[in-house]
Amino acid sequence: QVQLVESGGGLAQAGGSLRLSCAASGRAFSIYAVGWFRQAPGKEREFVAAINWRNSGTYYGDSAKGRFTISGDNAKNTVDLQMNTLKPEDTAVYYCAARSWLVPMDYLEYNYWGQGTQVIVSS
Fold first, then answer.
1. Which of 5, 47, 92, 96 could crosslink 22 through cysteines, CB 3.0-4.6 Å?
2. What angle is formed at CA 99 by the lines to CA 96 and CA 103, rounded to 5 degrees?
């Protein structure tokens, strides 16, 4: 089993920045991909970014390109999501997820999930 814990959410103003962190424990060595997803009220869970845990390859959803950066630290078993130039539409609960093979963008393909961290961006 893999346990994931997110941190770093909170309130930011439009144009500001937040950094989310996802800490993995348990069978962290079995992780191949870590993804960040978000879900706003009444909306489907959306892919934000993902990283290949083995070769650090990164992938971004359209909403994140050019503004967000995903990075991993294998030694600490953490994956961060640096979010810049925040917009009110970035308001959502952000979830960290992991799986043991491939780097899909579909949240249904991920096995392990954190509890989520709230991000609120005010205009």
1. 96
2. 90
